Amino acid sequence: MEEVQCTKEIEESDLDSAVFEDTPVEEYPIENITAFFGVTEVHTHLPQYSEDCDNLINIQDARMCKTKPDRGKGYTSGASCITSILMNDIEARVNLDTGAFCTCVGKDNLQAILPGWKSHLLPIEGVKFSSDSNNMYPLGILDTNIVFPHPAGSLRMKTEIVVMENCTSKHIILGNDYLNIYGIDINNHKDRYFGIGENKRQKFAFSNMPKQISVISSVKDTSKEELVADHFIYLLYTYKNVFASDNEPLGAIKGHEVYITLNIDRPYPPGLRRPAYPASPRAREALEKHIQELSNLVY
């Protein structure tokens, strides 16, 4: 692009009435002329740069996408970035950690997934790792594949995971190295999910892990009922395979069959003593479904 500069100094107050000494002719179309007045270019459509915060203009309040928490309870709105993956055909947990420089895993956590991991390590030398609290001691690099399951089509990633001697995390930490390489974006706008690569329609869900409540004597607002309810939800999630579902109704688990005997002889149970009344279509459909489930258990 041709560039023509002003040949004389122009005061900033006279910019509106500035005239070029050499008026552009036809060989210099107007759209190809750039006049430099010593003003830095402004890119309003680009993300912010890491510059000094001395000159701040046009400060606006950020809009919340979720319900505003009560004062002093902002920490309760936090959510984890943990999801399930397959590694060595074994289900494992991975934490999408945008604050981690590289992908790593503790040796104790890796032992449960890949018992023979020591024979698969690549050497690593002359590299120092550290966290916010202490130094990390690498044992080697594990070259492996991890699979993100999805009903519409799972994705396999080729990764190199640094195995740490003193990493105490219970999950595999997927750091910024592969978050950047594979273009993994975390969305917190409405429904929390993350996407991988250019396919923005394929959404991967985070694991809804129940929050573990630590009892602190100085917290007075926490009631006993709230602690019991949270603990009950945690038990339901931990032992979810014990309870009935649509695919595995109660009594269908092998080795734990349930036999139910209905009493229709006198004296009748209180539920059978009530006078009959016409059921609604919805109640009738639900009753027929329940009778069919009981029949399947018997036969």
What's the SSE blueprint?
Elements (H helix, E strand, L loop, with lengths): L81 E6 L2 E7 L7 E3 H7 L7 E2 L6 E2 L4 E2 L1 E11 L6 E10 L7 E3 L1 H6 L2 E4 L5 E4 L7 E2 L18 H15 L42 H18 L1
Parallel strand pairs: 2-9, 3-8
Antiparallel strand pairs: 1-2, 4-7, 5-6, 7-8, 10-11, 11-12
Descriptive report:
Helix content is 15%, strand content 19%. The longest helix has 18 residues, at 281-298. It has a domain at 78-205: Cathepsin D, subunit A, domain 1 (Beta Barrel). Residues 1-21, 23-46 and 213-220 have low confidence and may be disordered. It has 4 helices and 12 strands. The strands form 4 sheets. The protein has a 4-stranded mixed β-sheet with strand order 3-8-7-4. Strands 1-2-9 form a 3-stranded mixed β-sheet. Strands 10-11-12 form a 3-stranded antiparallel β-sheet. The chain is of the alpha+beta class and 299 residues long. The chain has helices spanning 107-113, 176-181, 224-238, 281-298, and strands at residues 82-87, 90-96, 104-106, 121-122, 129-130, 135-136, 138-148, 155-164, 172-174, 184-187, 193-196, 204-205.
